[in-house]
């Protein structure tokens, strides 16, 4: 017997049916079923009713499932990988043709090719995988398809990959997710078919690493595309700009570790509403001309300059800068006789342009490294007149002497969230915490409970403040279990 958590909501009933299909299709591989159950039960809420399903009576339950309409059964099968969905054809005659109607295909060679050492490198196994995909495509014929996800980490035939992609595009696919690595050699990447950029139905396109699109021409026709995700692909800036200009309905753009072939990048889109950038490389300039942008998340190294930042309708921003230890050391104690140190400091001095461009944002999150960088351009800090909610994460290895200027420049702040109350002590620490003198070295709340007055020092700047949250790790350096610290906390909030 096996256990199944079940509730009465539609989503959980569908999940229960999905697990039932797995159990029947994989009746001779109970270990696989157990792993599916273990994985599937984790997110379910406690308090759901437990039901024991015995193997006795399985046929009657199977009959009830087979009586469901094709649309519902296909919906259930869409939650499985294509390999698992294909296994259901052994259940009964009724199930044999259902795969032809499933509108979601999830082809993943890591599921098809078991992880035994060396198996995925065997020619006959790779050939078997490609034959399987060919059969699935043949079974489905010209039936409509909504989503096609293809993840190949083995050396499959690029011509056959072209055929699979062309097949789903011709059938009106709206969501295309591609990750194809033909070889570990970067010069032997899979060249994506131009047809992917000439589709009247694509609404979401995700292109992962191992795919070459540097050839991209100006003949782009994606009138319905709203979401574009690019992960670890190479791009020339002019090709990238041409792509964005051709996407008139684009609302969401995700750029992850793009291999830029130029040093000056400009993200320009009149329709874009959500922009997420993870930048692991170095650029000379980074510009944003996105007047309709609502959500912005940037995590990466600091560009030396931000010539254009047009985000006048921004609602939520998260700025997470990366700093190497060498950059941090040179920025804190530059050697005036070292041109390299001067260049590092000068590069951070233009960060104010980015913050000036997002000065109208109501909600802002800053990482510890971002606060450290802001300390180098405090004199140019803009006033955030519309900022209502500010979240700040601190770190004992990062300074926050930019804090006083930042807080003074948020006159209408209503919610302040401080995750941790520790920071690196510098000669300017007294500028950030009036409770710490330059002679009294320590790390904020770590060394003296009186430093809780620092929080009151912050609160004094905010006549509009309605809520303040403080996150402290149970065993972290800020010990609220200390009676003296707790006393000062109570005194502060009784003021």
UniProtKB/TrEMBL annotation:
Pfam families (alphabetical): F-box, LRR_At5g56370
Gene3D superfamilies referenced in this protein's UniProt entry, alphabetically: 1.20.1280.50, Ribonuclease Inhibitor (3.80.10.10)
PROSITE patterns given in the database record: FBOX
InterPro entries documented for this protein: F-box-like_dom_sf, F-box_AtFBL13-like, F-box_dom, FBL60-like, LRR_dom_sf, LRR_FXL15/At3g58940/PEG3-like
Superkingdom assignment: Eukaryota
Domain called F-box: residue spans: 62-99
Record protein name field: F-box domain-containing protein
Lineage of the species this protein comes from: Eukaryota, Viridiplantae, Streptophyta, Embryophyta, Tracheophyta
